[in-house]
Predict the 3D structure of the following.
Amino acid sequence: MKYLNKLLLLVLLFAGISGCDFLDPEPIDDPNSPSIEGVLENASKAQLQNLVTGLELRHRATTGANNIMSTFGREVYPLFASDPRFINQWVGLGDNADAENDPAFFGSGGTYTTPYRAVYQANVLIESANNTQAITDQERNAYLGFAKTLQAYSYLIPLNTQYTNGIRIDVDELGNLGDFLSYDQALTQIRALLDEAQTDLNAAGSSFPFVLTDGFDEFSTPADFINLNRAIAARAAIYDEAWGDAITAAEAAAPFFELAQGADVMNKGGYFVYGDPPDIFNPFFYVRNTTSTQLPTVHPSMITDAEAGDLRVQNKFFERDNPVTLQGLSSLYQDNRFSGTGDPFPFFRNEELILIYAEAKAQRNQGSDLSDAIDALNIIRNTWGLSDFDDPLNPPTQAEVIDQMLFERRYSLWFEGGHRWVDMRRYDRLDEIPTDGGKIYNNLARPQSEL
Amino acid sequence: MSKSYYSKLLALCAVFLFGTQLTLAQYTVSGTVTDASSGEVLIGVTIFNPATNSGTSSDINGEYTIEIPAGEATLRFSSVGYVTRTIDVSGSDGENITIDVEMQSDVANLEELVVTGLASSIKRQNLANAITKVDAEDLTGRTTPQTLDGAFKGKIPGVSIRSQSGAPGGGINVQMRGVSTLGAGSSQPLYIIDGVYVNNDAISNSRYLTTGANSTAEDNSANRLSDINPEDIESIEVLKGPSAAAIYGQRANAGVIIITTKKGQAGETQINVSQDIGFNSALHLPGVAEWNPEKVEIYSTIFGRNVANELAAYNSAANAGNIYDYEEILYGNTGLISQTNIGVSGGNRSTSFYLSGTTRSEGGIIENTGFDRNSVRLNIDHRINENITVSSRTSYTYTENERGFTGNQNGSGGSIGYALAYTPTYAQLQPDAQGNYPNNPYFADNMLSIVNNAVNDQTVQRLIQGIQLRADLINNESGVLTLSVDGGIDYLTFKSMVWMPTYLQNQQSNANPGDVVHTIEDNFNSNIQSVLSYATSISGVQLNTQLGFSRFDQLQERNVVRGQGLVAGQTGIANATIQSIISQSEVDVFDLSWFGQEEINWEDKVIATFGGRFDRSSLNATQDEYYFYPKASVAVNLLNFDFIDNSLLNQLKPRIAYGETGGLPNFGVTFRSLNSGNIGGLLATSVSARSTDPDLKPERAKELEFGVDLALLDNKVSLEATYYTKNVEDLILDEQVPTSSGISVIATNAANLKNNGIELSLGLNPVNNPDLNWFSTILFWTNTSEITDLSIDGFTTGGFGTSLSNYLIQEGFSPSTIVGLPAVSDPSLFTVYGDGQPDFEMSFSNEFNIYKNIDFSFLWHWKQGGDNINLSQLLTDAGGTSPDWNDNIENTDLGNGVFPKGADRVINGGSGAYVYDASYVKLREVGLYYTVPSSTLEGVFGSSVRTIKVGASANNVLLFSDYPSYDPETSVFGTQAINNSVEVTPYPTSRQVMFHVNIDF
């Protein structure tokens, strides 16, 4: 009978593991991350703070458009040896390179998908702030004003790269996406969104109910944040050729907007901050004289076209011991702006605002506008060690001022998001950009996922 | 269930266990069992008397004795590899009868038992599916394979097996009957070893972090079947499609491979010692282009190197005689292989054991690469009494793998193959007298320094424990009720380190030189299955009913940490300037199943089976929903009917089978998550770019297979012919939603796919006499796939984007279609350049046993068609090093766009230039063995040595292919459903030559 005992033991063992949880276990939740559903209803302030910081994170990721757009404007060469398509496709040396018609154009996600992720994050923040009792109405306005302002900033990136294709603005709901709006319609809506954000911020009290990173030190209260909001509105206004509005917006961005000399004055603004892990490194910092063939380099025309003594050239371009060469493109200069992996990267500086002001004034050209524009441009030139560009005895024409404005923008805003390409297109001068044997594109094709 | 139910059940068992012990009048039958052709005695032949349900087996001398109740009886003599014989006897009480029995060898394998249910097997002659069984002799008898799955090549019709690289430790993609998933579910078969669901993940060491490659897929990971010692394997059974594998339900879409390890036999303890010594050398090195002043000038002009500097460098190197073939320096080495195996087995009537220890050490063809595997195994079978048996299968393995640095990188260095592509022969990379390596001016790495200084090591410790219990709860004349409980655990710990020391060229260009990545991954799988089966017979029809339950659990924990900016010589994270946690993640999964099956056998004439399985899994979107997977099959043994004259034929069996299986979504795709991140010291949660489909179902494959099995001329010719059509429905794809939504992908059921194929297996025994026994097997298989329905827009996937060619997912096309630019308005979206799947595969294996003592065998494998995207050549073209780069250099006219061949290909070739036919013919295995005659042995050693066998063998012996690289078998992305024929500077395949000594005591 000893075997019976053993069998009994085995059967009992079997019975033991056949308990309820064994046969009908609890569902398994994501063991690694919180869920979206957890914040859309009754989010706590702490959860909203994480979403606000999340929007900063997504906002920062929009630097993903910098390399490709700055290549299109020939501010840089994309000397990334890892893939010949950086040069074949972006510079357009390859026979099949056609950014305007290739919906899967190489490496273009940063111009579209990435900024729209920031838009999505802002929408989730807006929805969460609207669906919680954990905050006051005044606090709610702060969340909304913050979210909408950064949302508008992001919309401008696909708008600039899709250009005449137009973009979607209404993207709240995946199943019910809004139509593609024309360039002008989209711009109107983006500007309206900024105005709406301004209204929200005006009703947001004197301090934010959330904390922002050091990159927003200049804009850490609702009142100061309105300065940034207006600065972006000024940028959108010049794209819209609404010169009067641009001047108004720029002036409303004061005290951030400051028409004065000095590097510190120029560099005031909003920055993307970086750090050591778990943060990320500044993606545009490269060791000087690196032997890596995996870096953007200064387009040679930036050197040859420069004025002697321009501190911007000295500050921004580092002359290497040896050139970097790839697929027939070569440059002796690399980016000199950053001294380490933790340096911040600007997303809006006062210098741009001064240039926007100068452009709008020169374009409107009423009363003292043209001389205001000349003065503004000279403030920048004097700051960077250059003399006034105008001869007071023989004042420049409007066209000459505009030419000068574009020149100053080229050096002042070099490699800060691809302004050159957008500027030259705005003035219908893409044909003045050196082709390097490749192509200068007008815009990017609508992405595959939208077709 | 209440407790009282159990006590009743126990009481019932007790009655049947102990209630039938009666004494009867009986007589004794005894004799010797021998092999009919050789006359050698046969050990372990089962002699069974169905009338009393009792039996015995032949002993070490081939002798047996069995007691039989007085009167007539029919004894059944059976043994693996021999045709079963039934012999009628009769006798009276106390009589002694001698019957010597000769057994015919089962050339057509009709007697072989094949698993068809979760607790039942069936004789091959009654089987309704084309299930391939490969035994130890075919797996490891010819040569010692590096990994078990590597030994499958060319031996299983319907299965496409591809090595991803030649790195020691393997890395193998096994695809059964075409494409079963488009990447969401598992593309690899389910492996079950002795009842334990084992982990076959390709565990990443996150090497991509140090090379800048795109993802873990490019880490050149070995799949973990490499931990299994091939020497321990008794046989494998391959359930290729749903019709055979339906009883495995939701994890069986890519097929099931059932592995059985060796067990001991009752009798004298046997000791087997084998020692194998051999070496690895490169199978095929295509060579590199020569350089001369003219070429230096042309190349430098086209690709923007400084002509004067390069000419000076070339002349200085050429004058000093310092021109190097770096391919030969890197890949031309010989790696030593040594394998020692000791096996001890034996037992008595109630307990048998198999104990083995194997140590294999293998050096690669790249210096400082290699694979060591040390394993021990103890298999015990114990019969508690006539009705209860328990078995334990325990194995522990420790592997060490130095994987080396090959494959893709993204400008940050860390791949010697990639750097080699750009390095001309006149580059000076040799170290100085102090051992310092100069920088490579042509790429981010000095390959020689990487080989000698960088570290890419991984170790795995693994314990697999299986337990099986069989208890006959009822055993009487009306039937047998058996409880089978199978279960076990597979516990695996993976540790790896990738280390780029501070002084490497690729590190010196970093802000924080020195980079180390440590990965630890723990995997714990456990499964248990209980089956009640009842076998009975009603008026000549045998019925076998099974009902069962199973549960599978998987728990995985993965930690990856990285340190950058290291203290010189240090690899600890604490010695890094920048310390980061790359990943700390868990996977937690359970599966639950209920199943049933009915087998009906009418006198071995008609054998029908039907059954089904209800499965649920936590991987599904609805975790508590059960999905049903049915199956049914019929086989008809026409010769067992009287109406066919069977003087010529031994078997004629048409068969048909249908079954459905599932494919589960990947872990994580059913969760809608917020990702955490860090910016400026604040914690961020940002919305994931992945959203979810609440209606997501598992993928479902429905397969109809039919065929005929034929044996004739005394089983000397056997043919198995099978046609199948496998439709995979509800394929899960990442739907690319408009990214303006901020969401990029949603896993959804979006496609149906159809695979059709033919499998032929012809076995021949053309010569069979004592001096020469010749077996020949010819296998042929082909598969075509087509996407029959796609509810989302067609798209391209894999590769490195469409401009370098990748794969098209579109209705009406095979999912392995290779397309590239330019885009076209056809449904193909882009220009079609090829297809990754072969047109057909064939293999031809022969075994010769000459004068009983010499065994010679070889295996040829022919793969026809199937294209690769050869981006190694893209790189060597850009670097001027492709072997044919210099062709047409004499006509170069840069002004008019006339370039040398290699430059022309990279500049003007377009997307399709690197798509190549990857057909090959390989001599996979050759073996030649001599068994010392037993008479000689006895003269020298007396009876202490049973057999001595010596031999030589080789693996990957010959390659015939027009494919312009190391080996048409390659995949930079590792194990993939679709994206598995892209090449980027892989570890070259090696040829392995081995010498063997095998002694049985």
About this structure: Chain A touches chain B through 106 residues (CB under 8 Å).
